[in-house]
C-alpha cells in the first residue's frame, strides 16, 4: 500500500512528466514540523487580544439587536439626550409634498397608508420598526441642539368645531406630559386665526422637559406612528390614536361602564386646568359676561347678599341647544331637533332633587347658549324664569360676538376671517359659562348643565362640573347616580352605555 506522501499532488490530467506531478519526499512532513518555531510572547498576546476583541464585538452586536436602549445608555448615547443629524432609516418619507405642515387630510392619507391592512396587538407605545429602526422620517442637522428632542403637536385646521378640537387636544396634551414630550399647537391652517388670539401659549403653561426649546421643522412631523420623534395629531387622524388601542391602554381595566372612563376624564380635566386656558383678553370678556350675568340674580336683601352663604343664591343652570349640522343621537328623537320643552322639563326634574343648591320653589337662573338665534328667543319665551345669553347683553363687546346663524362647518369656513374670529370668541365665552371651565371664586356657580351628548359642548360640560359633580356617586358597576348627577343629557338620556365619552372621533 502506498503512503500519503506517495499520492499525487496535482490534477490527474497533468502529464506524469510535469513538475506538478512530482511526488513529495517522505521526509517533507518531518521537515515541516521541525521548521515550525514556537510563537513569540508578543504574538501570543496579540492573538489573545484579537480573540477578546472579537468576543466583545459579538456581545455588542447581540445587545444592539436585543436591547438597543441599554447599549445607548451604556455609551452615553441615550436618544433622550441626542439630536441625531443623520438619516433615521425608518422607512417614512413625505418627500412627495412641497408645503409643510401638511393639511389635516394629507396627514390622514399618510396614516391610512401606514395603518391600514394590519392590526397592532402590542402595547400602545410599541414602536413599529423598519429594517430594525423605529419608523420615522429623516431629521435635519441641529448643531446648536435648540430643537426639542421629542414632541407632540396638535394641528388645528378647522375641520371640526372649537369644542371638538379642544376635547381631542386635551388628550394630546396629557399624553405629552405623561411621555415627557414637549407639547405644541400648530395653527398654520386653522380657519379661526391664531391660537394665541384666544388662548395662552401652551409652551408657557406646559413647559415640558426642555423649557425654551424650539419646535421641530414641520417637514419632520409624522402623523403615524405615534412613536415618531415628532408626532403630529389632528381631528382627522385622532381615530388612529384615540380609538380602541387608546381605551385598552388608558381606561381603567377593572372598572365597569362609566368607571372605565375615569382616568381619561382626569387627563382631560388636568389639561383644561393647566394647559388649555383663555388668554388675558378672553378672560376679560368672560369676566364681563359673568358680572352682567350676576345682575340677573334676585337680591332678597342687602344683608342676604353680604352673607357668606349667598353663593347658594348665585348658582345657575346652563342650557346649551345645538342645532345647525348636528342630528341628535337618541332614537327617540327620530333624527329631528330636540324640542325646547325637553330642556325645560329636564331643568325642573333636576331642580326637585334634594341636594340642589337652588330652592325647588324657584325657577333657576339660566345661562343660555345656542348656535341658533331663533332657539334663544323660543326658549326665553317658554321658560318661566330668568335667562341670560350673549345676544341680550348690554355690552356691545359681548353682543357683537353672538352667533348670527346656525352653525354649519362648511358655511362657517366660507365666512370672512373677521366674522370667524368674532364667532370663535363668542363660542369661547359660551363654553366657559355652559361648562363652568376656568371658573374661580366670587363668581356665579354652575349648579347643573342641561346639554346634549351629541354636542361637544355637552361632553366638556362634564369636565367643568367635575366627576362627582357631573355624575354623582357612581356605583361599582359604573351606573350614574340619577339622584345627584348635575350633568343632564337630554339626547341619549342614559339609553347607551357608557353615558359619557371624553371626545368625539371623526
UniProtKB/TrEMBL annotation:
GO annotation terms (biological process): protein N-linked glycosylation
Transmembrane region(s): 45-65
GO molecular function: alpha-(1->6)-fucosyltransferase activity
Keywords carried by this UniProt record: Membrane, Transmembrane, Transmembrane helix
Keyword DNA damage appears in the UniProt entry: no
Biased composition (Polar residues): 1-30
Gene3D superfamilies: 3.40.50.11350
Stretches for region Disordered: 1-36
PANTHER family: ALPHA- 1,6 -FUCOSYLTRANSFERASE, ALPHA-(1,6)-FUCOSYLTRANSFERASE
Protein's name according to its UniProt entry: Uncharacterized protein
